[in-house]
Specification:
This protein is mostly helical. It has a domain of about 120 residues. It is about 45% helix and about 0% strand. The protein contains 10 helices and no strands. Helix 6 crosses helix 7. The longest helix is centred in the first third of the chain and has 18 residues. The radius of gyration is 57 Å and the shape is elongated. The termini are far apart. The C terminus is likely disordered.
């Protein structure tokens, strides 16, 4: 006997099977790709502070004044100033070594002035003065200003003498000079020379201290005359 199949029931069974199959299927939904995690770099370390600059060494170069003249040769090195002339012993040159001349004035002669320097100047100062005189030419020897310049130049090199202050105080007025200039002149004289200048000051010092120094030659000539 033939079986009768109900089509509606068959459709229900087929539908149920399909639903069951669908339920058993895993539906995979594509997810958007995850954005990559950004790696944040750590902040750079603070820049190291530069060490304070060491102060530069400043070299103090002594400056040397030469007036308007040219700089000294030899790399600009200035020779140290010579020491002053003290009252120690010294060998004084011979006045006879001066250049001879017949045109010189009669008195005081260059030889008399030279002998006055040897007599009244301290030994080292006298040596400097006589050395200057013997270096003059025969024409210069007869020039009184040249002879006096040798004497003043030598006296200017003398060391200051501590015992001339009182005499210079007395001489300041009549000789119209300063204590510094007087000390420069008097310090280069020996005791005999200082006494001779003191007498000149007491007599009025009319020609100034330079006149008193020049007058020492007359004192020498008078002493030589008395000896004879």
């Amino acid at each position: 006997m033939a079986m009768k199949i109900d089509r509606s029931a068959l459709l229900l069974v087929a539908s149920a099977g399909m639903l069951a199959g669908l339920a058993a299927c895993e539906v995979i939904v594509d997810k958007p790709p995850a954005s990559p995690t950004k790696t944040v770099a750590p902040p750079p370390p603070p820049a190291a502070q530069a060490a304070p600059a060491q102060p530069k060494e400043v070299k103090v170069v002594p400056m040397h004044l030469h007036g308007s003249g040219p700089a000294p040769a030899g790399g600009g090195t200035v020779a140290p100033a010579a020491a002053c002339l003290d009252t120690g012993a010294a060998t004084v040159g011979d006045c006879a070594a001066m250049q001879a001349s017949t045109a010189c004035p009669a008195a005081p002669t260059p030889l008399q002035k030279c002998n006055a320097f040897k007599t009244y100047f301290a030994p080292k100062v006298a040596a400097a003065a006589v050395s200057c005189l013997t270096a003059l030419s025969s024409t210069q020897v007869c020039d009184p200003t040249q002879i006096s310049a040798c004497g003043r130049s030598a006296l200017a090199q003398a060391c200051p003498a501590p015992g001339v202050g009182q005499l210079c105080q007395i001489a300041a007025g009549p000789c119209k000079t300063s204590a510094t200039d007087c000390t420069t002149v008097i310090s280069g004289l020996d005791d005999q020379g200082q006494q001779a200048v003191a007498q000149c000051v007491a007599q009025g010092c009319a020609a100034g201290l330079s006149g008193c120094i020049d007058g020492l030659a007359g004192s020498t000539a008078a002493a030589v005359t008395l000896k004879h």
